[in-house]
Amino acid sequence: MKKLLLILLCLPMISFGQNKNEENKQLSKMDLFTSKTGSIIKYIDYSVTDIKGSYSTGEAKVRQIIVGESIGYFFQISKTGKYSTKTASIEYSDLLEVIRAINTLKEDSSSDIISEGDYLENKFVTDDGFQIGYYISNEKAVWYITLEKYGSDNNIFIKEITDVEISLIEAKNKIDSLKTID
């Protein structure tokens, strides 16, 4: 009987801990960084080269966030749609991964173009749901960026992948220079 009572008393604490972990998994890296209560949060933006798409342009910037004594760096791409603005916030370490992934994707695209499948898609996805990749259509790679995991009108179809690379590298260099100042 005592064991049953002990289990019943501990059960709410166990499920609360699991719910808290599940909530943290839902938050983006930027949300987690800025969710510290009781601290002053300062945002400083630095413009970098925008990403030109076939049908729209992604406004690109580096966002430095200061929360108390902590400093975080994010590369942001925003696309203004008809009804809302979609924004991807890519944390610095993820930015480095995206840059590496583009090099791999570019190498893969040349061999994927001659593949015999009816449909082929190759992409890289960050923890926060930002995607960059391509699909093959009429023996041509069509590059795209997906800014957010959910919703519509969150894609930018890229004219030239080099435009994305320029913006990403410019953002990396800006963050690197800001880090040396800190």
For this entry, give a set of tags.
five-stranded antiparallel beta sheet; single chain; 4 helices; Secreted effector protein pipB2 fold; elongated
Written account of the structure:
The chain has 182 residues and is of the alpha+beta class. The chain is 40% helix and 34% strand. Helix 3 (92-112) packs antiparallel against helix 4 (161-181).
The second-level CATH architecture is 2-Layer Sandwich
Q: List segments where confidence is low: pLDDT < 50 over at least 5 consecutive residues.
A: 2-24
Strand content: 25-35%
The amount of helix comes to: 40-55%
Provide a quick synopsis of the model.
This protein has 182 residues and is an alpha+beta fold. The chain contains four helices and nine strands. It has one domain (36-181): Secreted effector protein pipB2 fold, CATH 3.30.2450.
How are the SSEs placed, and which strands pair?
Elements lengths: L1 H25 L2 H6 L6 E7 L3 E2 L4 E11 L2 E11 L4 E7 H21 L8 E5 L5 E7 L2 E7 L8 E4 L2 H21 L1
Antiparallel strand pairs: 1-3, 2-3, 3-4, 4-5, 6-7, 7-8, 8-9
Helix pairs in contact: 3-4
